[in-house]
Design a protein that fits this description.
The complex is a heterodimer of chains A (334) and B (322). A two-stranded antiparallel sheet of chain A has the order 1-2. Chain A is globular. The two termini of chain A are 26 Å apart. In chain A, helix 4 crosses helix 15. In chain A, 78% of the residues lie in helices and 1% in strands. The mean pLDDT of chain A is 89. Chain A is mainly α. Chain A is built from 18 helices and two strands. Chain B has 322 residues and is mostly helical. Chain B has one domain: ABC transporter involved in vitamin B12 uptake, BtuC (Orthogonal Bundle), CATH 1.10.3470. Helix content of chain B is 77%, strand content 4%. Chain B contains 13 helices and four strands. In chain B, the strands form two sheets. Chain B has a two-stranded antiparallel sheet. Chain B has a two-stranded antiparallel ribbon with strand order 2-3. The longest helix of chain B has 32 residues. Chain B starts with a helix and ends in a 10-residue tail after the last helix. The chains are: A mainly alpha (334), B mainly alpha (322). Chains A and B meet through helix 7, helix 14 and helix 17 of A and helix 6, helix 11 and helix 13 of B.
Chain lengths: 334, 322
């Protein structure tokens, strides 16, 4: 049963299995074991980001392409749900309409970007996605009549989802299901071909696989799932805006999560996202303590200032790329 | 550069804009503004494209070199209040030249450190290069916050470079003219080095075919360190110029400019300095014309230009053979 659910991709390490079980139980029982608005927000963010990071890992870890437009698709999902609910009214039909349009837009954009640049080189794709994503970000803040500009959009949800508990479990269940779908995809024959493309494009092509097609499909799939994650996040926050969905800071967070957790394993995405979101919310408190404790020492309090937490994660990121390319999961599986 | 069509695009765009802009003096102002912007972008982008052409390394941390250069230069300029406010150009230059030198020196030192420590272990692996240099960009941005503080810093221009001069009816900002002059100087200096010196010959040969140059007994690696450091110094120069143009600086400025730089490099053809020059001027001019004629479209004009150029020449204006 579990083997089928996990598509045969078992954790293969006791420590990893324990960590994953803890994350799953923690998220499933979050409203009861961690009461309070802040911790529930953290739990929901973890659930959404596990899905988002996993969909990014499909591109970065499995297919070996670096995209900087992943938050763009995340944002399209958020704005799709947000604009529909805010401008057309909070009914199920409107929400569904917004979601479907967002998915279609993401699919079309991912396909167009892939067609334009995936046949060239990894580096080209990275640069083009960066340019397109920054353009999209500007677009969202310019079309303020539509998107609420820099302030974003607050919106109301259909009756049922206004209950926080129902909303949380909707987000949790959908994230879990889509994560398992991703696990299914990467362990299917299609996923094997993606690995082959990553490892040796020339050989994969020689074996008769059209690598451009496989890459484009992976790109579209990643985009669709990121859009879904965006919808879930917007539904949870009942808000969508540039800072929660489109900003480049989130793109960097995603990169950090994938690499620290472990590229090329879906479980790495789960661990990376959990660790990162918790660090984002609680590490700063810890750093404030350390910063206060080292007062008087030159420079050290500044380096340990709570706002500098990204500095240390950045260093960890570089160390990970050099010395632990398979991240935490790779360590645990050894 | 025997292929003259891309070069002809620059005057073509300028002439095309002439009937669209209501008055000729405005057109002159916009053209100079566009050229100035393009020159500054070229200064920042040229090092990056050359490094890519020579060693196949795409350095996302180039944005950090720009920011660091800007901050280093600004520290010097802000420390020299008296010569900056003086009405004599000589006094102003007495402040600007040390500032620019500081910017270039610190950016070059950072570039050298980066090449040795961060980039060297990941030659030949694009994926890791992107990740590692991106990580470097994050760390550098955060370190700028640590050293210079997180707030926006205002950087007034020196007294003789503020305001504009009238050329007929057209008002032209003095600083922009300086930017055009410096940009042209950098371009011609680069052109001379690349086309008239032995080192330039080796660099061009290295871009065409690295292995062949190595097999002839030249150490392309050493050459590369030199190009990397020089490119970083240019990033620092561009950074301080851009900061004076904007009259303010933030740690994130490098990242913001990096997007435009990437567009310029893609337009020009990855690795081509000439293409980078043409691309930068095109981007600068079009951004200014469209910003005046249809402000709503301005922000998308770069992307639109890139798509059009790629549809016409999928590998950029001047593709480098590799």
């Amino acid at each position: 049963m579990i083997r089928t659910l996990l598509s045969g991709d078992l954790p293969r390490s006791k420590a990893l299995a324990v960590v994953l079980a803890l994350i799953l139980v923690g998220l499933a029982a979050a409203p009861f074991i961690f009461p309070g608005t802040r911790s529930l927000n953290v739990a929901a963010k973890v659930a959404v980001f596990i899905l988002l990071v996993a969909s990014y890992d499909l591109l970065l870890g499995y297919t070996g392409i670096v995209s900087f437009a992943h938050t763009m698709f995340f944002g399209i999902g958020g704005y799709g749900a947000g604009i529909a609910a805010a401008k057309l009214g909070p009914t199920w039909w409107n929400l569904a309409l917004g979601i479907v349009l967002a998915l279609l837009l993401s699919l079309a954009l991912a396909f167009a970007i892939g067609l334009l640049s995936l046949r060239v080189r990894a580096i080209f794709f990275a640069m083009i996605t960066l340019a397109v994503a920054s353009f999209f970000q500007i677009l969202a803040s310019q079309l303020s009549a539509f998107t609420g500009g820099e302030d974003g959009l607050n919106f109301r949800l259909p009756e049922l989802l206004r209950n926080r508990l129902v909303a949380y479990y909707t987000v949790f269940a959908l994230s879990l299901i889509l994560f398992l779908v991703l696990l299914r995809v990467v362990n299917s024959p299609f996923g094997r071909v993606l690995l082959a493309v990553r490892e040796n494009e020339f050989r994969a092509e020689a074996l008769g696989y059209r690598t451009v097609i496989y890459r484009t499909v992976a790109n579209c799939l990643g985009a669709l799932l990121a859009t879904a994650a965006g919808v879930l996040y917007a539904v949870w926050l009942r808000y969508t805006g540039p800072d929660t969905t489109l900003s480049f800071a989130i793109m960097i967070d995603l990169l950090l999560m994938v690499v620290i957790g472990g590229m090329g394993t879906m479980y790495g995405a789960a661990i990376g996202a959990t660790l990162f979101v918790i660090a984002q919310n609680y590490l700063q408190d810890l750093m404030k303590l350390a910063s206060d404790a080292t007062k008087g020492v030159p420079l050290l309090p500044d380096l340990l200032h709570p706002d500098r937490w990204l500095l240390w994660l950045g260093v960890l990121f570089i160390v990970c790329v050099y010395y632990f390319p398979s991240g935490i999961v790779g360590r645990l599986r050894r | 550069m025997r292929d003259w069509i891309p070069l002809a695009l620059i005057p073509a765009v300028a002439l095309l804009a002439l009937p669209l802009v209501p008055s000729t003096p405005t057109w002159v102002t916009l053209t100079i503004a566009g050229l100035a912007m393009g020159m500054m972008i070229f200064i920042m982008a040229s090092g990056l494209t050359l490094v890519f052409g020579l060693m196949d390394v795409m350095n996302f941390a180039h944005g950090a070199f720009i920011s660091v250069g800007a901050y280093a230069g600004a520290s010097v300029l802000l420390a020299m209040k008296a010569p900056m406010q003086s009405q004599s150009l000589v006094d102003n230059l007495g402040a600007i030249i040390p500032g620019v030198l500081a910017a270039m020196a610190l950016a070059a030192a950072l570039g050298w450190f980066f090449e040795r420590v961060v980039v060297r272990p990941v030659y030949g692996d694009h994926l890791k290069q992107i990740l590692v240099t991106m990580g470097g960009l994050i760390v550098c941005e955060q370190l700028i916050h640590v050293v210079w503080g997180p707030d926006l810093i205002a950087l007034p221009r020196p007294a003789t470079l503020t305001g504009s001069i009238l050329l007929g009816d057209a008002a032209i900002e003095r600083y922009r003219m300086l930017a055009v002059v410096v940009g042209l100087a950098v371009f011609f200096a680069m052109w001379l080095v690349l086309n008239r010196t032995r080192i330039g010959l080796l660099i061009r040969a290295g871009v065409e075919n690295t292995e062949m140059v190595e097999s002839l007994g030249y150490r392309v690696r050493r050459l590369f360190v030199g190009v990397f450091v020089a490119g970083s110094a240019l990033a620092g120069l561009g950074g301080i110029m851009w900061a004076m143009y904007q009259e303010s600086l933030t740690a994130g400025m490098g990242m913001q400019v990096l997007v435009v730089i990437f567009i310029v490099i893609i337009i020009g053809g990855l690795g081509s300095v000439g293409g980078c020059f043409v691309g930068a001027l095109l981007v600068g001019l079009i951004a200014n014309y469209i910003g005046y004629v249809a402000p709503k479209l301005a922000l998308g004009s770069n992307i639109l230009l890139m798509v059009l150029i790629l549809l016409w020449r999928p590998r950029g204006l001047y593709p480098v053979g590799k």
